[in-house]
Every structure is written in structure tokens, then in C-alpha cells.
Amino acid sequence: MSNIVGHAERVQSEGKPDVFYGEIAVGGISGEVYLIPYADKRSDKSPDYEVKMRGFSGDWESYGNAWAKKMKVGGDMLSVTFDAPQLPQPVYVAMFPDDEQPKDTPKNKAASWSFTWSRPRRAGGPAMAQPAQAATSDAIPF
Fold it and tell me: Alpha-carbon distance 32 to 24, whole Å?
């Protein structure tokens, strides 16, 4: 099950590439976020966007990368990795176009997108249930 953890809009500026701007709150990350396209993509595996957020100083800082992907069922998505020194571990989210967006919306119109997060699966499948232990007064966190 995935959870919506933020929203973004495609922002267009005359003569500049489209960017995404929005807000997100997940895994120790909270605030405004920009996804800015890289001008010089070196290979097919290189990220398509740089993720920027406001740092403690108030300046925009790099917080990770995003890759544009085609879904097997059709449509586009972004795979976003938030990874910065102030995070204990990377946070992975996906960004999908919102369903409310009309199908015939021209590409030159702003589109609404949602950040979604799912708890990572453990290696080897779901965790096995552990047998219940009898509660003792020492085990109850008073």
C-alpha cells in the first residue's frame, strides 16, 4: 500500500525547461522541493532531474536525483531518491501524475503530480509472524 506524501506541479517558464515544484513530508524530509532537469544527461542511466530543497541556511541545496520512467501499463512516472548528508538513510519515493488531470491536457499546460511512498519490502518476502510471548510486568512499558 502506498501513501501520498506530497504534491508537485509542473512549472513552465518562457525559454527554460519545465521544472516540478511542490511540497513533501516523509522520512525526516519536510518542506518545499524542486525537481530541476539536468542540462547534460551523460547516459541513459544518468538521472533526469536534480532534487533541491531549502537547507538550514535557507539556500536551495541538492537533496538527490530523479529518473523519468515509463510504466509497463503506460504513462510516465518519476523515481525520486532523497539522499543528503543530514538524512540517516536515503528515502525513495515515486511521483505519478494525478488521476484528476484530464487525459487530453496539452503538454504545454501545468500538470499536477503526487509523491507516493511505500514501506520497502524485506529481502526474502514478508516477515514471519513471531509467536506471542506471555506479558510480564517487566515487559510492559509503563
Answer: 7
